[in-house]
Amino acid sequence: MPLVFKSPTGSGKTFMVCNFINELNNLPNWDIDKAFIWITFSDDIAMQSKEKFKLYFENTLKNILLTVSDINRSKLLKNDILFLNWQKIVSKASGNRVLRRPEDELLQKESGYYFEDFIDNTHKSNREIILIVDEVHKNRGTKLAQEIIDYINPKVILEISATPENEPTISQVKHNQAGFVEVDREEVVKEGLIKEKIIVQSNEDLQKHKGKDLDIVLLELGFNKRLELKKQFESLGKKVNPLLLIQLPNDDNDLIELGQPKKEEIVLKYLTGKKINPYNIASWFDNKKENLDDITDNESEVEFMIFKQAAGTGWDCPRAHVLVMFREIKKSNFYIQTVGRILRMAEPDKKEDYNNQHELRTGFLYTNYQRNEVAIPDQSNANKPKVFVSYLKEDLIDKIKDFKLESAFISRVDYGDLASSYKFQMSFIDSMNKYFNLTEKEIFGKELNKLKEKGIEVKPLITNKIIVDAEFEDFDQLFLDIHDKGTDLDFEVSHNDIEKTFNYFCYQLLKEQTDDDAKISNVSRSWAPFKSALRIWLKTAFGDNYQYYYKVFVFDILKGALSKFRPAITKALKDYKPIIKEILKDRQKKIEEKESLFFTFKDYYSYSDEYIEIEQKKCLYEKCFIRNELGKNNEENFIKYIDKKDSIEWWFKNGDYGKDYYALKYFNVNNQTECLFYPDWILKLKSGKIGILDTKSGWTINTEGRANALALKLKELGNNYFGGIVRFANGIYEYCNSIKFDDNSEKNNRWLQIEDLLK
């Protein structure tokens, strides 16, 4: 049965749940044989929860507190609490195999216990499990997560969150089908646990620093506010040293690529200029942690903490009072949870002392995020972890040990960049001049009339809209309120910011190209030569004053779809694309004369949770996985078909990228480039013949040139090979292996029964 505990951020959810569990030990009329599993979303948070439990009940602790290392004790005993990081059990990757039981018996331990054993032994002892899921909105979003919950089979699930996604209905609670407890935010404020509100910089704040670099302005505002708060604490006789948090962009390293100093360097230079003792500055990064030992103590001498995301969630430091938050370089993800770090009150047990202290009951946020950039960050993982493994069937290992096919590859001649800085520069300048109808005489004469006629503003004024005068009372509604409260201030951008923005746009303009004939895939390698070519053209068109032509360019690009430079740049990139192709073609030819690649079957293949397992009989591997997406039914049905064919000895489902799978080269008729093609199936008949097949259905029957390449490859391989493009039509499977495959009209191709091949 699910129980949902909804309580505001900063309200002490962990303490309340710990106290609830502790009280269960003392109920004389409810002495159930039970144990607890407390799941969090990181190792650090799991250990924090465990240590808090120990701290709260140091002298009265009746529960044994366990961690991952205790799984070898075989099972949970009565009232035990296992604190566990969710990620340790939702993966079957090799790195986590210490917890999860591999399905291959040969890989299982001779001694010791897996997580599954631990759960099984607990249930065999007739002991119920109560599952506690902290921050449930982060932890239950995958199929694997639900599979683990089903395996644990808890008697009760206690879900903890400030913003639960699924709240029980009144009817469910009324009929004891679920439980729901909510703590009102007003009560938490009244008890002195959290601040009344969080406010952002005011219009007046920014006007005082007009014309200065915005990075420095934000640091100055945060620095001065911390000093003000410190004086207020001292006036009350409080030994509370307020902490200023400074969150750097998570993609701060990209500033190096943009030719700019990292925000960390800017911050440290600023604090050094203020004569701050280095021991009073803490750093919390993945690879560097400094001066953090007593940072959570109210009297700690540490005054500033610089970090990225490490302190975003679950970290408690009640004296943290001010937050300077720099926007992301690329995605502009606003990490709302970080704002929660300045929400707590430093002395909740002395709440009456702060009744008339407005600012000491307020959190202060200084940020250069714009209103439309405030969004929940994308937490998806582009690089999915490998959670499934499939091994070669033992009885087939010897039969394929000599199997190999020459596999195509596109060698690393194409780095996705501009290939030649000099050739690009010449092409770019020529293209831009033609677009704006400029002649050499007009360029060197600094004639701007034609640029004006094209809509270029030559006397621009650039401002930045920043949120000001906003007050947020309910932190857990911040995501919604920040779009409605406060106003936007037009703050004139400094020369320093203009230059940084120019560099950023050089990067972004390349990145935003969507047409294939204008797209540059490796922006990191390309933006510098692009910037150089752009600067040369702007200099000849607008004169030597780079601050001036930077401003002209940035002002125009900020117009978005109304920009005049944007289409000109896209046209220049398109004009250069044929030149790139010729450069790469020459490189490719030279390299392929020296290298070759052969495909052989690996001992095993790994798959992410984007794949699902399909029942099979004749797959070369013990398990067959296909991608769980549109089109999977076509592949699944073909597996059922070839599994029933007596003539087939084994078959293999090929992957769709990488050197671990079989590929052949083809000329893509749509984008006019050489690409790699990974046929879906490799199979072997008992007669010894090898088949290479690619199943298509619906619109995918248009192969863009793949069918022709496969037919030519089969002809090259000789009589012992067969295959082609396969479709399901007229109630049967048909194939076509024509070297003149018609991608535009399916009916123009000669389709034959595949039964004739599989004899």
- pLDDT averaged over residues: 81
- Give the neighbour order of strands across the main sheet: 11-10-12-9-13-14-8-18
Report the end-to-end length measured between terminal Cα atoms: 57 Å
**Which architecture of the largest domain per CATH?**
3-Layer(aba) Sandwich
Cα-based radius of gyration, to the nearest Å: 32 Å
Amount of helix: 25-40%
**Oligomeric state of the chains?**
single chain
> Could you tell me the strand content as a percent range?
15-25%
CATH fold descriptor of the largest domain: Rossmann fold
Secondary structure layout:
Layout (H helix, E strand, L loop, with lengths): L1 E5 L6 H12 L9 E7 L2 H14 L8 E2 L14 E5 L29 H10 L3 E6 L2 H4 L3 H10 L3 E6 L8 H5 L4 E4 L2 H6 L6 E4 L2 H5 L6 H22 L7 E5 L6 H4 L5 H11 L7 E5 L2 E3 L13 E4 L12 E6 L10 H4 L22 E6 L18 E6 L5 H4 L4 E2 L14 H15 L4 H5 L4 H5 L9 E6 L2 E2 L5 H4 L5 E6 L2 H17 L11 H20 L3 H12 L7 H28 L5 E2 L4 E5 L2 E4 L9 E4 L4 H12 L4 E6 L10 E5 L4 E5 L3 E5 L4 E6 L10 H12 L3 E9 L2 E5 L15 E2 L6
List keywords for this structure.
759 residues, alpha/beta, Rossmann fold, eight-stranded mixed beta sheet, 31 strands, 19% strand, flat
Please describe what this structure looks like.
The protein has 759 residues and is α/β, with parallel strands linked by helices. The chain contains 23 helices and 31 strands. The protein has four domains: 2-183, 3-Layer(aba) Sandwich (Rossmann fold), CATH 3.40.50.300; 197-373, 3-Layer(aba) Sandwich (Rossmann fold), CATH 3.40.50; 421-592, no CATH class; 610-756, Trna Endonuclease, Chain: A, domain 1 (3-Layer(aba) Sandwich). Helix 14 crosses helix 19.
